[in-house]
Amino acid sequence: MPADSSTSLSSRTARSADPGPDAKAPPQGFGRGFVLDTWYFAALARDVRPGEMKRHELLGEPVLIGRTRAGCLFAMRDICPHRAAPLSAGRIVDKGDPGGDGTETVECPYHGWRFRTDGVCAAIPSLVDDQAFEADRIRVRSYPVAESQGMVFVFLRADPRSEAEPDHAPPTFPGVVGGEAKLVEVMDFDSHIDHAVVGLMDPAHGPYVHQQWWWRSEHSMHEKSKRFEPCDLGFAMVRHAPSSNSRAYKILGGTPATEITFRLPGYRWEHILVGEKQVLALTCLTPVTETKTRITQIFWSDHWVFGIAKPFLRMGVVAFLKQDGGMVNLQNEGLRYDPALIWIDDADTQAKWYQQLKREWTKSRGEGRGFVNPVKSAVLRWKS
Questions:
Q1: Could you read off the pLDDT of 118-173 as tens digits, one per residue?
Q2: Which residue stretches belong to region Disordered (predicted)?
Q3: Which of the four, 3, 128, 349, 379, has the lowest number of CB atoms within 10 Å?
């Protein structure tokens, strides 16, 4: 499929010869386990170039994400089943191996074993002609992968050996306008994804953690009241005018109206309308391991301000991420002792909803039924 295709799917999954458990354990309480059988953000599509491969770690698993020279996007476990060398350290070759998408294969850097993009072994160079060995019986685990809106998503299954097609598409986001993303920042938090999610959606920490002159401070705190509605795999703060003590919005001019949405497994976005112009601030939370979460913030806009103020906006985004990351490190000092956590209404209701969504997703998958959103319409009130 061409490299510039807006959406491509590769869900050819074979039984794997690599070791490992048949299934990951389901989530077991807050701060443990992962939401599975769903799509995680892995990379920007522009960073997966034709003929290249890169190693990623997703939910504690090494995942190779690559694109053939012909433009086929693929993902497979980044371990050669022969001697465990990372396949991503090899290269994509075209040696006439049959099967898969064309003849391009992934060649292991250690002994030259070659694998099709669906994970099936296509050739073992050390075999001589009279040695009968069926190479195609050896398979590397492959993952469904999709390209959408300039992003690459990987589907992580509860049973990694399953061959079932994903039963839902990756998320799509409003306001992806103006061509490529205008601003991208990435930072790793030393945190389980649960703590990272509730930290980023927490409405009350801003005046204490983010104290910039252009944002807000504890001296400008006042009561807020926002309506929330359930939506696809999550919930949304209904479109509203930004708070008067959020000074950064003033650079957009006009009368901004913003809607903030969260959905499983870890996407939070703010869609801002300023007349006919749009701004989308998307945060993707991707678990690297149980104790590390990658935060990727991506901004799209057709608003003129991004052409002029981009360096200052980048400084602001980096400052926010560093402040949140620093607070995560402080929080980890307390979490080492596994304390009981106190959740209050209404400021912590979004955190409660996240936990309810996570439990319902896992339960619905285990029972083989449709997901029933547990979030109900509500008006939440807090001071910040």
A1: 999 999 999 998 888 889 999 999 999 999 999 999 999 999 888 889 999 999 99
A2: 1-29
A3: 128
Distance CA 318, CA 316 (A): 5
* CATH number of the domain residue 334 falls in: 3.90.380
Is this structure's pTM higher than 0.90? no
Residue at 306 is within a domain? yes
Residues 110 and 251 in one domain: no
